Amino acid sequence: MKPIVLTSPLQGWASPLEAVPDPVFAERMMGDGIAVDPTGDCLHAPCDAVVLSVHASSHAITLRTPEGAEILMHIGLDTVALGGRGFTPCVTEGATVQRLDPLIRFDLDLLVCEARAVITPVIVTNPERFTIVGRETGKLVGVGEVIMTLEPRDAADVAVVEGDTICRTIVVPLVHGIHARPAARIGEIARKFVSDVKIIKDEREGNVRSLVALMAIGVKLGDEITLAATGPDAADALAAIGDLILSGMGEKAPAPAATSEFPREGGGPGAKNDGAAGSWAPASAGEQAAAQTRVATLPADGRLPGVTASPGIAIGQAGLFRLAEITVTREGAGATAERAALDAALGLVAARLSNKSATATGAERAILSAHAALLDDPTLTDAAHAAIAQGDSAAYAWRAAIRTQAAALHATGDSRLAERADDMLDLERQVLRALAGEDLDERLSFPPGTILLADDLLPSHLLGLDTASIVGFCVERGGPTSHVAILAATMGLPALVAVGPALAEIAAGTPLILDAGAGLLHVAPDAETQATAQTAFDAQTERRRAALANAAQECRTQDGVRIEAFANLGSADDAEAAVRNGAEGCGLLRTEFLFLERDSAPSVEEQTADYQRIADTLDGRPLIVRLLDIGGDKPAPYLPIAAEENPALGLRGIRVGLAHPEMLDAQLRAILAVRPAGQCRIMVPMIASLAELRAVRAALDAAAAATGHTDPIALGIMIETPAAAVTADLLASEADFLSIGTNDLTQYALAMDRGNPAVASDLDGLHPAVLRLIARTCEGGAVHGKWTGVCGGLASDPLAVPILIGLGVTELSSAPALVPEIKALVATLTIDACRAHAAAAMNCISAADVRTLAREFRP
């Protein structure tokens, strides 16, 4: 076979892979090659080839040459987060291209401004078959200039099946592919055999005993996979696992029509995952700075915007924290010693997680439990042990194992798996510190009054903060739903995330004002701004003290109108906090916490016990139980919901319950069993028509008759769709109450996906269109004398509360910790002032204008 010549797909500076500030590429986890820092705006074919895949975000493409070499080209780093913005693919999967043909056009200016780096790796992803015998780097190259020469390896170098390893190739029939539940079932079967079994898909493979490894492969419906078993009972293991997968495990897709094919998007016959890992960014601060090709300048007025993770005002000075890379050496001191050291370090970290979890509550315990589960995954330890056996040090082996799996999880494009990948980086540091004999708690010590500025923070860092000294924090990266953001809200620390690289320009000790509620960091404020902020901070402190002292009082406006102050709950711990903060009931119990992350639906008895525990904690206060709200962004592993092109508009909310009447009946029976009778009210999610409400009413009546329940029970609905809002008068004729889920209502009204970071900054429930839908809902409910509440995010927003009351809302269900402040705020309001304010808000032209108006409102 002749050598394969690859020419530069881009005009720019050619560099070795080591120059890429991402270890997934720099350490050749994806394969070998070079990188080009582009000065042009079009990616061209480096050879004659067939297009194997174009990434859904159009930032990466994989080609296969006629000789079988597979070439991945990944434009920039972290560019998957752009969601396709700035990229225009010129080819599609399966197309035949010739050298120099345009593949992807891109907006270089956009990438320079918004991506972590624009350097583009060009990778040979099957290096076991081809050797790079020549490469051109350290120079400026033009499109079409030779950059690499490949030669096929000798047959002796190609991996072959030997000895007692046998293989079986099958096509996956599972509608959701191999996700958490089937992965757990496969692992359970595998543990019954002695032989090692792995699943291979394209260039990815994973041990079937590892949940993380199987999920990270990204197996989809219709994918062709190979099962490879090695050991004395390999044939039996292969038969059992293969048959289990082919059975569909209760999630088998219906047979396609003769003329149809499996969906090619995300996998199917002929589809291929390109293995790109561009959304993961574990590089050190130094690497990030070196990769920064743009100049981030602080605004002239010193007002730096960010995304609110936790509201509040903080005044202090800048304290800088950069997550420094822990240096490790590759060469070990002998396999026995290194393995013993790693196992001891893993034991230390596991014990620490267990001890901290025993005293943690709520969100902290959930995060620690997630870390413990990841630490116990055999894929990580097996990979590390294998590397140690090859001579690597324990630290180097552990880092490589963690980062390979983290990159694979990010490459799936699943936001929940990506969050776990970020947590894995936290585990990496903890184990490396244990190996070095360092304190596992990385205490961040700063002077009192510090507002912490960081490129990013890990959950363990935040749990180790000295909150007596740290009064708030801002991070360049992150998102409002990350573990760090959740912890910030739990700890009551004002915090901004996604502030951007301009944050790195602020010097330590710089005076700062963090107005997290307004999404602003004021840098080096003048005396007048400082004085204004101090006044606001003092008022906030006094407000919170007084609010907590008066939290037990009934919630009424200044002119005596009753507004119920309820809390949103997800557990008995939440209920305890709600009672402590003066909540008058629960306006939303999220029951999906009982159903997710498990292999089967909870029984009636399990559900009743949990609901009863929460009811007991509320001590007679009303408990509004939302029926199971899954599907879309919250799938349950054991429910066979077919893959959907747009899950947010598909089978979710009550649609799932009506599609699975046995599950709906079990939940209704469990709620009816709670005592005292009448404390619980039932709320139906995602209602869009009166027919759906009638179907649930019929199911409730049947469950009551079957259990002998004769006491009346209120059945209300959530208003989350524009359809429900505009027909609220029709729905209220048969619903007992209406409660508005402003998060979803905003998403559907504005046609902006809640989970899409590209539109996150514009997704605001105070948009006039959303306010008009809320007004329409309140009017519709009033026609039939039914009350309307809000259990979505707006009920926790002090700027929104007067507007909501002015629109006709009479119940507000907020985060438990915010109940005292909500009650105190309501006590300052009058109905007439709120109505006038709401009318003015609905006549604004944007959410930003509404927020400006709301800040100027004086009750």
Spatial strand arrangement across the major sheet: 9-5-6-7-11-3-2-13
| Regions with little confidence, pLDDT below 50 for 5+ residues | 155-161, 255-295
Q: How much of the residues is beta strand, in percent?
A: 15-25%
Distance linking N and C termini: 82 Å
Sum up the overall morphology in one term: globular
Radius of gyration: 29 Å
Mean pLDDT: 80
Largest beta-sheet characterization: 8 strands, antiparallel
Structural class: alpha/beta
How many distinct helices? 27
| Helical fraction | 25-40%
User: Based on DSSP secondary structure assignment, what is the total number of beta strands?
Assistant: 34
Structure description:
The chain is globular, with a radius of gyration of 29 Å. The chain is built from 27 helices and 34 strands. It has 859 residues and is of the alpha/beta class. It starts with a strand and ends with a helix. The protein has an 8-stranded antiparallel β-sheet, with no helix packed on it. It has an 8-stranded mixed β-sheet with strand order 19-26-25-21-22-23-24-20.
